[in-house]
Amino acid sequence: MASTDKPAAHPDKTEVESQPPNQSPCINLILIDLPLRALLFASTVVAIVLITTSNETEIAVVPLTPPKSGPRTAKFSHSPALIYFLVAVCVACLYSILSIVASFSFISKPAPPKTLLLVLAFFDALFVGIVSSALGAAAAVAYIGYKGNSHVGWIKICNVYDKFCRHIAGYLAMALLASIILVFLTLLSTYSLYRRSH
Amino acid sequence: MASTDKPAAHPDKTEVESQPPNQSPCINLILIDLPLRALLFASTVVAIVLITTSNETEIAVVPLTPPKSGPRTAKFSHSPALIYFLVAVCVACLYSILSIVASFSFISKPAPPKTLLLVLAFFDALFVGIVSSALGAAAAVAYIGYKGNSHVGWIKICNVYDKFCRHIAGYLAMALLASIILVFLTLLSTYSLYRRSH
Protein backbone atom coordinates (compact mmCIF):
# COMPACT_ATOMS: atom_id res chain seq x y z
CA MET A 1 0.00 0.00 0.00
CA ALA A 2 2.78 2.37 0.97
CA SER A 3 4.68 1.74 -2.24
CA THR A 4 1.67 2.58 -4.44
CA ASP A 5 1.63 6.09 -2.95
CA LYS A 6 5.18 6.84 -4.09
CA PRO A 7 4.43 7.74 -7.76
CA ALA A 8 1.80 10.25 -6.56
CA ALA A 9 4.50 12.06 -4.60
CA HIS A 10 6.39 12.83 -7.86
CA PRO A 11 5.33 16.11 -9.40
CA ASP A 12 6.06 15.05 -13.01
CA LYS A 13 3.83 12.09 -13.81
CA THR A 14 5.24 11.56 -17.34
CA GLU A 15 8.71 11.03 -15.86
CA VAL A 16 7.36 8.21 -13.71
CA GLU A 17 5.60 6.62 -16.69
CA SER A 18 8.79 6.80 -18.79
CA GLN A 19 10.50 4.53 -16.20
CA PRO A 20 8.09 1.61 -15.93
CA PRO A 21 9.07 0.04 -12.60
CA ASN A 22 7.70 -3.42 -13.44
CA GLN A 23 9.14 -3.88 -16.91
CA SER A 24 12.76 -4.52 -16.02
CA PRO A 25 12.22 -7.02 -13.18
CA CYS A 26 9.58 -8.87 -15.25
CA ILE A 27 11.96 -9.30 -18.16
CA ASN A 28 14.63 -10.52 -15.75
CA LEU A 29 12.20 -13.01 -14.26
CA ILE A 30 11.31 -14.35 -17.72
CA LEU A 31 15.03 -14.86 -18.34
CA ILE A 32 15.01 -17.19 -15.29
CA ASP A 33 11.55 -18.65 -15.93
CA LEU A 34 12.14 -19.85 -19.49
CA PRO A 35 15.43 -21.77 -18.89
CA LEU A 36 13.91 -23.33 -15.75
CA ARG A 37 10.93 -24.58 -17.76
CA ALA A 38 13.31 -25.89 -20.45
CA LEU A 39 15.26 -27.69 -17.71
CA LEU A 40 11.99 -29.11 -16.36
CA PHE A 41 11.20 -30.43 -19.85
CA ALA A 42 14.70 -31.93 -20.21
CA SER A 43 14.60 -33.62 -16.77
CA THR A 44 11.17 -35.18 -17.44
CA VAL A 45 12.27 -36.42 -20.90
CA VAL A 46 15.43 -38.01 -19.41
CA ALA A 47 13.29 -39.62 -16.67
CA ILE A 48 10.88 -41.04 -19.29
CA VAL A 49 13.77 -42.43 -21.37
CA LEU A 50 15.39 -43.99 -18.28
CA ILE A 51 12.17 -45.60 -17.05
CA THR A 52 11.17 -47.05 -20.44
CA THR A 53 14.65 -48.53 -21.04
CA SER A 54 15.05 -50.04 -17.59
CA ASN A 55 13.86 -53.62 -18.29
CA GLU A 56 16.45 -56.26 -17.34
CA THR A 57 16.32 -60.07 -17.57
CA GLU A 58 18.38 -62.15 -15.13
CA ILE A 59 18.45 -65.70 -13.78
CA ALA A 60 16.79 -65.13 -10.43
CA VAL A 61 15.14 -67.11 -7.65
CA VAL A 62 11.87 -65.77 -6.31
CA PRO A 63 11.14 -66.95 -2.73
CA LEU A 64 7.61 -68.17 -3.38
CA THR A 65 6.29 -71.48 -2.01
CA PRO A 66 7.73 -73.52 -3.75
CA PRO A 67 10.60 -71.20 -4.86
CA LYS A 68 10.62 -70.39 -8.58
CA SER A 69 13.87 -70.01 -10.52
CA GLY A 70 14.79 -69.24 -14.15
CA PRO A 71 15.25 -66.16 -16.35
CA ARG A 72 13.03 -63.43 -14.93
CA THR A 73 12.62 -59.89 -16.20
CA ALA A 74 12.50 -56.87 -13.89
CA LYS A 75 10.10 -54.36 -15.46
CA PHE A 76 8.86 -51.03 -14.19
CA SER A 77 5.34 -52.20 -15.18
CA HIS A 78 5.49 -54.85 -12.44
CA SER A 79 5.10 -52.08 -9.85
CA PRO A 80 1.98 -49.85 -9.77
CA ALA A 81 4.10 -47.17 -8.04
CA LEU A 82 6.50 -47.04 -11.01
CA ILE A 83 3.58 -46.98 -13.50
CA TYR A 84 2.13 -44.02 -11.58
CA PHE A 85 5.59 -42.42 -11.67
CA LEU A 86 5.75 -42.76 -15.48
CA VAL A 87 2.23 -41.34 -15.95
CA ALA A 88 2.98 -38.40 -13.59
CA VAL A 89 6.28 -37.59 -15.32
CA CYS A 90 4.64 -37.79 -18.78
CA VAL A 91 1.91 -35.35 -17.70
CA ALA A 92 4.57 -33.05 -16.17
CA CYS A 93 6.52 -33.21 -19.45
CA LEU A 94 3.39 -32.21 -21.40
CA TYR A 95 2.77 -29.36 -18.93
CA SER A 96 6.37 -28.18 -19.30
CA ILE A 97 5.87 -27.87 -23.09
CA LEU A 98 2.64 -25.89 -22.64
CA SER A 99 4.23 -23.63 -20.01
CA ILE A 100 7.28 -23.01 -22.26
CA VAL A 101 4.86 -21.81 -24.97
CA ALA A 102 3.16 -19.55 -22.40
CA SER A 103 6.52 -18.28 -21.14
CA PHE A 104 7.61 -17.52 -24.74
CA SER A 105 4.51 -15.38 -25.18
CA PHE A 106 5.79 -13.19 -22.29
CA ILE A 107 8.88 -12.16 -24.24
CA SER A 108 7.02 -10.13 -26.87
CA LYS A 109 5.02 -8.27 -24.20
CA PRO A 110 6.31 -5.51 -21.89
CA ALA A 111 5.00 -7.42 -18.83
CA PRO A 112 3.46 -10.90 -18.42
CA PRO A 113 -0.37 -10.93 -18.16
CA LYS A 114 -1.35 -11.26 -14.51
CA THR A 115 -4.04 -13.88 -15.15
CA LEU A 116 -1.48 -16.07 -16.93
CA LEU A 117 0.92 -15.67 -13.97
CA LEU A 118 -1.87 -16.75 -11.61
CA VAL A 119 -2.69 -19.81 -13.76
CA LEU A 120 1.01 -20.76 -14.02
CA ALA A 121 1.51 -20.36 -10.25
CA PHE A 122 -1.48 -22.62 -9.57
CA PHE A 123 -0.46 -25.33 -12.04
CA ASP A 124 3.19 -25.17 -10.91
CA ALA A 125 2.00 -25.84 -7.33
CA LEU A 126 -0.31 -28.62 -8.51
CA PHE A 127 2.55 -30.29 -10.40
CA VAL A 128 4.81 -29.95 -7.34
CA GLY A 129 2.26 -32.22 -5.65
CA ILE A 130 1.91 -34.66 -8.58
CA VAL A 131 5.64 -35.05 -9.29
CA SER A 132 6.57 -35.19 -5.57
CA SER A 133 4.01 -37.89 -4.80
CA ALA A 134 5.28 -39.94 -7.78
CA LEU A 135 8.86 -39.38 -6.61
CA GLY A 136 7.95 -40.51 -3.08
CA ALA A 137 6.17 -43.63 -4.34
CA ALA A 138 9.00 -44.65 -6.68
CA ALA A 139 11.66 -43.91 -4.03
CA ALA A 140 9.83 -46.05 -1.45
CA VAL A 141 9.67 -49.03 -3.84
CA ALA A 142 13.28 -48.47 -4.91
CA TYR A 143 14.38 -48.42 -1.27
CA ILE A 144 12.70 -51.78 -0.59
CA GLY A 145 14.33 -53.13 -3.78
CA TYR A 146 17.72 -51.82 -2.63
CA LYS A 147 17.64 -52.74 1.08
CA GLY A 148 14.72 -55.17 1.42
CA ASN A 149 12.66 -55.30 4.61
CA SER A 150 13.57 -58.19 6.91
CA HIS A 151 10.64 -57.49 9.27
CA VAL A 152 8.11 -58.65 6.67
CA GLY A 153 10.42 -60.80 4.53
CA TRP A 154 10.58 -58.52 1.49
CA ILE A 155 13.92 -59.41 -0.11
CA LYS A 156 16.18 -56.89 -1.86
CA ILE A 157 16.42 -57.28 -5.64
CA CYS A 158 19.11 -54.73 -6.54
CA ASN A 159 21.89 -57.31 -5.98
CA VAL A 160 20.42 -59.23 -8.97
CA TYR A 161 18.93 -56.48 -11.16
CA ASP A 162 21.72 -53.89 -10.94
CA LYS A 163 21.05 -52.19 -14.30
CA PHE A 164 17.35 -51.90 -13.45
CA CYS A 165 18.21 -50.29 -10.11
CA ARG A 166 20.74 -47.91 -11.68
CA HIS A 167 17.99 -46.72 -14.03
CA ILE A 168 15.62 -46.25 -11.08
CA ALA A 169 18.28 -44.17 -9.29
CA GLY A 170 18.67 -42.07 -12.46
CA TYR A 171 15.01 -41.27 -12.89
CA LEU A 172 14.53 -40.63 -9.20
CA ALA A 173 17.28 -38.00 -9.46
CA MET A 174 15.55 -36.47 -12.50
CA ALA A 175 12.19 -36.39 -10.68
CA LEU A 176 13.81 -34.76 -7.65
CA LEU A 177 15.30 -32.12 -9.95
CA ALA A 178 11.87 -31.60 -11.59
CA SER A 179 10.20 -31.18 -8.17
CA ILE A 180 12.76 -28.60 -7.04
CA ILE A 181 12.40 -26.69 -10.34
CA LEU A 182 8.61 -26.68 -9.95
CA VAL A 183 8.86 -25.24 -6.42
CA PHE A 184 11.12 -22.46 -7.77
CA LEU A 185 8.75 -21.84 -10.70
CA THR A 186 5.83 -21.47 -8.27
CA LEU A 187 7.88 -18.98 -6.29
CA LEU A 188 8.85 -17.14 -9.48
CA SER A 189 5.25 -16.81 -10.76
CA THR A 190 4.09 -15.69 -7.31
CA TYR A 191 6.98 -13.26 -7.01
CA SER A 192 6.10 -11.77 -10.43
CA LEU A 193 2.57 -11.11 -9.12
CA TYR A 194 4.08 -9.66 -5.94
CA ARG A 195 6.22 -7.25 -8.01
CA ARG A 196 3.17 -6.25 -10.03
CA SER A 197 1.20 -5.51 -6.84
CA HIS A 198 3.65 -2.72 -5.88
CA MET B 1 -4.38 -2.88 -15.43
CA ALA B 2 -7.80 -2.16 -16.92
CA SER B 3 -9.44 -2.20 -13.51
CA THR B 4 -6.99 0.40 -12.12
CA ASP B 5 -8.11 2.83 -14.83
CA LYS B 6 -11.75 2.59 -13.78
CA PRO B 7 -11.52 4.71 -10.59
CA ALA B 8 -9.88 7.50 -12.59
CA ALA B 9 -12.98 7.65 -14.80
CA HIS B 10 -15.12 8.53 -11.75
CA PRO B 11 -15.38 12.27 -11.16
CA ASP B 12 -15.81 11.96 -7.38
CA LYS B 13 -12.59 10.49 -5.95
CA THR B 14 -13.81 10.35 -2.33
CA GLU B 15 -16.71 8.12 -3.41
CA VAL B 16 -14.22 5.65 -4.87
CA GLU B 17 -12.07 5.73 -1.73
CA SER B 18 -15.09 5.03 0.45
CA GLN B 19 -15.47 1.70 -1.41
CA PRO B 20 -11.97 0.17 -1.10
CA PRO B 21 -11.88 -2.45 -3.86
CA ASN B 22 -9.30 -4.72 -2.17
CA GLN B 23 -10.64 -4.76 1.36
CA SER B 24 -13.77 -6.82 0.85
CA PRO B 25 -12.22 -9.65 -1.27
CA CYS B 26 -9.22 -9.84 1.10
CA ILE B 27 -11.44 -10.26 4.14
CA ASN B 28 -13.43 -12.90 2.27
CA LEU B 29 -10.22 -14.74 1.38
CA ILE B 30 -9.11 -14.73 5.05
CA LEU B 31 -12.47 -16.24 5.94
CA ILE B 32 -11.54 -19.15 3.64
CA ASP B 33 -7.83 -19.17 4.48
CA LEU B 34 -8.17 -19.49 8.26
CA PRO B 35 -10.60 -22.47 8.34
CA LEU B 36 -8.48 -24.21 5.65
CA ARG B 37 -5.36 -23.83 7.80
CA ALA B 38 -7.30 -25.07 10.85
CA LEU B 39 -8.42 -28.09 8.77
CA LEU B 40 -4.79 -28.65 7.71
CA PHE B 41 -3.77 -28.66 11.38
CA ALA B 42 -6.59 -31.09 12.28
CA SER B 43 -5.77 -33.48 9.44
CA THR B 44 -2.06 -33.58 10.33
CA VAL B 45 -2.85 -34.14 14.05
CA VAL B 46 -5.23 -37.02 13.17
CA ALA B 47 -2.55 -38.49 10.86
CA ILE B 48 0.08 -38.29 13.66
CA VAL B 49 -2.30 -39.94 16.17
CA LEU B 50 -3.16 -42.71 13.68
CA ILE B 51 0.47 -43.43 12.78
CA THR B 52 1.71 -43.50 16.38
CA THR B 53 -1.09 -45.83 17.52
CA SER B 54 -0.80 -48.26 14.62
CA ASN B 55 1.47 -50.93 16.20
CA GLU B 56 -0.05 -54.40 16.10
CA THR B 57 1.32 -57.75 17.35
CA GLU B 58 0.16 -60.97 15.66
CA ILE B 59 1.33 -64.56 15.32
CA ALA B 60 2.85 -64.40 11.85
CA VAL B 61 5.16 -66.41 9.63
CA VAL B 62 7.86 -64.46 7.82
CA PRO B 63 9.11 -66.26 4.67
CA LEU B 64 12.82 -66.03 5.45
CA THR B 65 15.22 -68.96 4.93
CA PRO B 66 14.44 -70.80 7.22
CA PRO B 67 10.93 -69.36 7.82
CA LYS B 68 10.47 -67.67 11.19
CA SER B 69 7.22 -67.83 13.11
CA GLY B 70 5.96 -66.46 16.43
CA PRO B 71 4.40 -63.25 17.76
CA ARG B 72 5.64 -60.42 15.57
CA THR B 73 4.80 -56.74 15.81
CA ALA B 74 4.02 -54.60 12.76
CA LYS B 75 5.39 -51.10 13.50
CA PHE B 76 5.53 -48.02 11.33
CA SER B 77 9.17 -47.66 12.44
CA HIS B 78 10.03 -50.84 10.50
CA SER B 79 9.61 -48.89 7.25
CA PRO B 80 11.82 -45.87 6.43
CA ALA B 81 9.01 -44.60 4.17
CA LEU B 82 6.57 -44.48 7.10
CA ILE B 83 9.19 -42.81 9.34
CA TYR B 84 9.67 -40.16 6.63
CA PHE B 85 5.88 -39.83 6.46
CA LEU B 86 5.66 -39.17 10.22
CA VAL B 87 8.47 -36.59 10.13
CA ALA B 88 6.92 -34.81 7.12
CA VAL B 89 3.45 -34.70 8.72
CA CYS B 90 4.91 -33.42 12.03
CA VAL B 91 6.71 -30.60 10.20
CA ALA B 92 3.52 -29.81 8.23
CA CYS B 93 1.58 -29.73 11.53
CA LEU B 94 4.09 -27.27 12.98
CA TYR B 95 3.86 -25.14 9.83
CA SER B 96 0.05 -25.16 10.03
CA ILE B 97 0.24 -23.70 13.58
CA LEU B 98 2.65 -20.95 12.45
CA SER B 99 0.53 -20.14 9.40
CA ILE B 100 -2.65 -19.99 11.54
CA VAL B 101 -0.91 -17.38 13.71
CA ALA B 102 0.07 -15.47 10.54
CA SER B 103 -3.45 -15.76 9.15
CA PHE B 104 -4.91 -14.48 12.46
CA SER B 105 -2.72 -11.40 12.16
CA PHE B 106 -4.52 -10.62 8.85
CA ILE B 107 -7.86 -10.18 10.60
CA SER B 108 -6.88 -7.04 12.51
CA LYS B 109 -5.52 -5.39 9.35
CA PRO B 110 -7.54 -3.96 6.45
CA ALA B 111 -5.53 -6.06 3.96
CA PRO B 112 -2.89 -8.80 4.43
CA PRO B 113 0.76 -7.64 4.00
CA LYS B 114 1.96 -8.58 0.52
CA THR B 115 5.32 -9.90 1.72
CA LEU B 116 3.56 -12.24 4.15
CA LEU B 117 1.30 -13.46 1.31
CA LEU B 118 4.39 -14.16 -0.81
CA VAL B 119 6.09 -16.07 2.04
CA LEU B 120 2.90 -18.08 2.71
CA ALA B 121 2.46 -18.90 -0.99
CA PHE B 122 6.06 -20.14 -1.19
CA PHE B 123 5.88 -22.27 1.97
CA ASP B 124 2.45 -23.63 1.02
CA ALA B 125 3.95 -24.80 -2.32
CA LEU B 126 7.00 -26.23 -0.54
CA PHE B 127 4.76 -28.18 1.86
CA VAL B 128 2.67 -29.44 -1.07
CA GLY B 129 5.91 -31.11 -2.21
CA ILE B 130 6.92 -32.41 1.23
CA VAL B 131 3.49 -33.82 2.20
CA SER B 132 2.83 -35.23 -1.30
CA SER B 133 6.17 -37.04 -1.44
CA ALA B 134 5.52 -38.52 2.03
CA LEU B 135 2.02 -39.51 0.92
CA GLY B 136 3.40 -41.18 -2.22
CA ALA B 137 6.06 -43.07 -0.25
CA ALA B 138 3.62 -44.31 2.41
CA ALA B 139 0.99 -45.20 -0.21
CA ALA B 140 3.54 -47.24 -2.23
CA VAL B 141 4.58 -49.24 0.86
CA ALA B 142 0.93 -49.65 1.91
CA TYR B 143 0.03 -50.94 -1.56
CA ILE B 144 2.77 -53.60 -1.38
CA GLY B 145 1.53 -54.53 2.10
CA TYR B 146 -2.04 -54.75 0.82
CA LYS B 147 -1.49 -56.55 -2.49
CA GLY B 148 2.08 -57.88 -2.32
CA ASN B 149 4.21 -58.19 -5.46
CA SER B 150 4.40 -61.72 -6.86
CA HIS B 151 7.05 -60.75 -9.45
CA VAL B 152 9.69 -60.26 -6.75
CA GLY B 153 8.12 -62.39 -4.01
CA TRP B 154 7.08 -59.58 -1.69
CA ILE B 155 4.15 -61.04 0.25
CA LYS B 156 1.12 -59.06 1.38
CA ILE B 157 0.83 -58.47 5.13
CA CYS B 158 -2.57 -56.80 5.44
CA ASN B 159 -4.30 -60.19 5.70
CA VAL B 160 -2.43 -60.64 9.02
CA TYR B 161 -2.05 -57.08 10.32
CA ASP B 162 -5.52 -55.73 9.56
CA LYS B 163 -5.61 -53.06 12.31
CA PHE B 164 -2.17 -51.81 11.24
CA CYS B 165 -3.34 -51.52 7.64
CA ARG B 166 -6.61 -49.78 8.62
CA HIS B 167 -4.51 -47.18 10.45
CA ILE B 168 -2.28 -46.76 7.36
CA ALA B 169 -5.41 -46.23 5.20
CA GLY B 170 -6.61 -43.62 7.70
CA TYR B 171 -3.43 -41.58 7.76
CA LEU B 172 -3.03 -41.82 4.00
CA ALA B 173 -6.51 -40.29 3.68
CA MET B 174 -5.53 -37.51 6.13
CA ALA B 175 -2.30 -36.80 4.20
CA LEU B 176 -4.23 -36.69 0.92
CA LEU B 177 -6.61 -34.17 2.50
CA ALA B 178 -3.63 -32.14 3.78
CA SER B 179 -2.03 -32.11 0.29
CA ILE B 180 -5.25 -30.92 -1.37
CA ILE B 181 -5.71 -28.20 1.31
CA LEU B 182 -2.10 -27.04 0.75
CA VAL B 183 -2.67 -26.76 -3.04
CA PHE B 184 -5.77 -24.64 -2.38
CA LEU B 185 -3.89 -22.51 0.18
CA THR B 186 -1.14 -21.86 -2.40
CA LEU B 187 -3.83 -20.81 -4.88
CA LEU B 188 -5.49 -18.61 -2.25
CA SER B 189 -2.28 -16.79 -1.27
CA THR B 190 -1.38 -16.31 -4.96
CA TYR B 191 -4.91 -15.14 -5.76
CA SER B 192 -4.73 -12.59 -2.90
CA LEU B 193 -1.54 -11.18 -4.51
CA TYR B 194 -3.32 -11.22 -7.89
CA ARG B 195 -6.23 -9.19 -6.43
CA ARG B 196 -3.76 -6.75 -4.88
CA SER B 197 -2.01 -6.26 -8.24
CA HIS B 198 -5.20 -4.83 -9.79
Characterization of this structure:
Two copies of one chain form a homodimer. Chain A has helices at 2-9, 13-17, 23-52, 80-107, 114-147, 162-196; strands at 56-62, 68-74. By secondary structure, chain A is mainly alpha-helical. Chain A has a two-stranded antiparallel ribbon with strand order 1-2. In chain A, β1 (56-62) and β2 form a beta hairpin. The longest helix of chain A is centred in the last third of the chain and has 35 residues, at 162-196. Residues 1-23 of chain A have low confidence and may be disordered. The interface between A and B is large, with 58 and 59 residues.
Write the topology of this structure:
The structure is a homodimer of 198-residue chains.
Chain A: H1 2-9, H2 13-17, H3 23-52, E1 56-62, E2 68-74, H4 80-107, H5 114-147, H6 162-196
Antiparallel strand pairs in A: 1-2
Helix pairs in contact in A: 3-4, 3-6, 4-5, 5-6
Properties at a glance:
homodimer, 198 residues, mainly alpha, two-stranded antiparallel ribbon, 6 helices, 71% helix, disordered N terminus
Q: Give the averaged pLDDT of chain A, no decimals.
A: 81
* Terminal residue distance of chain A: 7 Å
> What's the total helix number of chain A?
6
Given the helix and strand composition of chain A, which structural class is it?
A: mainly alpha
List the uncertain runs of chain A. 1-23
Please name the two chains that share the biggest interface, counting residues whose Cβ lies under 8 Å from a Cβ on the partner chain: A-B, 58 and 59 residues
Spatial strand order of the main sheet of chain A: 1-2
State which percent range the strand residues of chain A make up. Answer: 5-15%
Largest sheet of chain A: 2 strands, antiparallel
What does the radius of gyration of chain A come to?
24 Å
State the share of residues found in helices of chain A, binned by percent: over 70%
Order of helices and strands of chain A: HHHEEHHH
Number of strands of chain A: 2
- Specify the oligomeric state: homodimer
What is the approximate shape of chain A? elongated
